[in-house]
Design brief:
- It contains seven helices and four strands.
- By secondary structure, the chain is of the alpha+beta class.
- β3 and β4 form a beta hairpin.
- The longest helix has 25 residues.
- It is elongated and about 70 Å long.
- The termini are far apart.
- The relative contact order is 0.13.
Length: 189
């Protein structure tokens, strides 16, 4: 009699555990998951060095900076610029209203400030070498381009925590204004 009762209790507990596992598996993703998906949609292309994203960014940078005059291949420069990029979603907090949220994301990237400092140091070395005296303007521009690429290649990554604010708009988590400034802050840390 006791064996039957123990067996029945084990079956009941087992059924309850299976039911809870199935309920957990079939549950709808929560708002935190939706925000994590949104963050990933913004950063995965950069992290994975998606060719279409690199080409677009290279085109934008080239259009604004005349990289050709300096002998810089825009795609190679952007690839160097994004080398080592990574991100980690550390936390997502939904406010009490359920309509606003913040996501803390650790962004690892090269610091443009550090790359600029390295380019300045390399430029000073070049200027003090006296090589400029025998160069044409085109040759000097190419040398400056070479220095810019070298500086970016030699720049190490840094990790910066950024906080992105979201609001629920028509059932979709949408980044609030200021997201761009957070990303720029990471790249200029």
């Amino acid at each position: 009699m006791k064996t039957k009762r123990l067996f029945s209790m084990l079956l009941a507990a087992s059924a309850l555990a299976c039911g809870l596992m199935l309920a957990a598996c079939s549950s709808e993703p929560g708002p935190e998951d939706a925000i994590k998906t949104e963050v990933a949609s913004q950063f995965d292309a950069i992290k994975n060095l998606d060719q279409e994203s690199i080409d677009q960014l290279a085109s934008d940078i080239s259009a604004n900076n005349d990289l050709e005059a300096y002998g810089i291949d825009g795609v190679a420069y952007v690839t160097s610029m994004l080398a080592g990029f990574d991100y980690e979603i550390k936390d997502v907090v939904i406010d009490e209203s359920g309509e606003n949220a913040s996501a803390t994301v650790a962004i690892t990237c090269k610091s443009f400030s550090d790359a600029g400092e390295r380019a300045t140091a390399l430029s000073e070395e070049f200027a003090s070498s006296g090589e400029m005296m025998d160069m044409t303007m085109d040759e000097m521009n190419k040398k400056i381009g070479s220095i810019m690429v070298q500086a970016m290649d030699e720049t190490a990554t840094k990790t910066t925590d950024c906080t992105f604010e979201y609001s629920l708009v028509d059932g979709t988590w949408t980044p609030k204004d200021g997201t761009d400034q957070q990303v720029y802050a990471a790249f200029f840390a």
